[in-house]
Amino acid sequence: MGAAAGKQKAEKHVSAIGRLLKQWRTTRRMSQLDLALEADISPRHLSFIETGRAEPSREMVLVLCEALEIPLRERNAMLLAAGYAPLYRETDIDAPEMAHIRDVIDFMLESYNPYGAVALDAHWNVLKANRAYEKMAATFFPGLAGGGDGPPNLLYQLFSEDGMRPYIANWDEVAYYMVQRMHREAVHAQADDPTVTFLEDLLAGDDVPRRWHLFDVSAQQSLLIPVHLKVGDLDARLFSVITTLGTPQDITLQELRIEAFMPADEATKEVMAALMET
Fold this sequence. Notes:
The protein is an alpha+beta fold. It has two domains: 2-81, 434 Repressor (Amino-terminal Domain); 96-276, 2-Layer Sandwich (Beta-Lactamase). The chain has helices spanning 2-27, 32-39, 43-51, 58-67, 72-81, 99-111, 131-140, 154-159, 171-186, 194-203, 217-220, 251-255, 266-276, and strands spanning 117-120, 126-129, 227-231, 234-244, 257-263. A five-stranded antiparallel β-sheet has the order 2-1-5-4-3, with helices on both faces. The model is unreliable at 5-13 (pLDDT under 50).
């Protein structure tokens, strides 16, 4: 009975830290030897951690997270799974101590004018937008909907018939690419993550193409997909550029990104410049 109880305890432990560790290692396509070398530990010790035969120290968990390049939010989850308190805080972007960061965001957004740019959180909520984006949205998305209370959500706006969808000429191409981006982000997101919930609701539709249900890794390795906007006789072709903050120690900052919509041709450059003059 004692041996059986010990085995059950070990299996329970594996489901916490060992299983998470193996899941991340598999996702990063690293063998135990690869990860052991990167973390400067023995493959035997790593194997013991994954199988529950050894309990990692707090420092070891952090070393392995660093070697696997795990996001800060998930590092907290790894620490909790190993029985330790979370290390990384999540500060509201509107908190007084984030004033300097808000100034940096404003500077970055303004620097993209006359091209549209937005600051997004991890769930695609639009935290801030520059003047060019507001001009572009007013021109190309006359029926743009906010998607409920709180900040507008770019995913909701993109897929909504009351938002951007009717004005994207190459909708099938753009939608498939965005679905694949959501699949990629959902790999390690929690079940109640808003992006996961949005993707599940989207895929539950009767008219959803079959290929949307599958995570196509090659789609994320393809060239940038231009977005062809068309309203009346006005055309614009854009591609997005994503900027993130370097080596942040706060979850909010790590998940924050600036997405800018740059012209894909000379004609679009002229259209964007003209919009800023109106």
